[in-house]
Amino acid sequence: MIRLAKFLYYILIAAAVVIGLLFYLGPAKYTPSGNIDPQITPLALRYTFFVILLAVALAIIFPIINVISNPKNLVRNLIVVVGLAIVTGICYYFAKGDVLPLLNYSGSDNVPWVLKLVDTGLFLMYIAFAGALLAIVYSEIRRYLI
């Protein structure tokens, strides 16, 4: 099983490297405004979409396999999920959905519900970043306290 995972890992990395090289070094056309438009862009976007879908599928499948193989950890996992849901709810509560006064923008993304979701995501990223920094500092300090 580990060999298969490593093999798939190397295949995905090799494909990403090849697509990246083709994106930067491959054929391109100039747009009327003078910008360079790589011809490999649709393939790169499809590959990125595939890798994201694969990651989401594996992030759903492997915890289910883990719960089936080790049901004692289910309570701990549920506590973590409930905690994350509470933090997400708090972030959503504090997110503002105020429409931004943007000049020359007539798109459909400047609406309250989209802005509220974006604010929620930003708050969650701030919390995750702060948690990562605190974990790094704690792991370094703990080494000297023990």
What can you see in these coordinates?
With 146 residues, the chain is mainly α. It has 2 domains: 1-69; 71-146. Helix content is 74%, strand content 4%. The protein is built from 4 helices and 2 strands. The chain has helices at 2-25, 41-69, 74-94, 112-145; strands at 28-30, 36-38. It has a two-stranded antiparallel sheet with strand order 1-2. β1 and β2 form a beta hairpin. α1 (2-25) packs antiparallel against α2 (41-69) and α3 (74-94) crosses α4 (112-145).
Structural class: mainly alpha
Across the major sheet, the strand order is: 1-2
Beta fraction: under 5%
**Alpha carbon gap, first and last residue:** 38 Å
What does the radius of gyration come to?
A: 22 Å
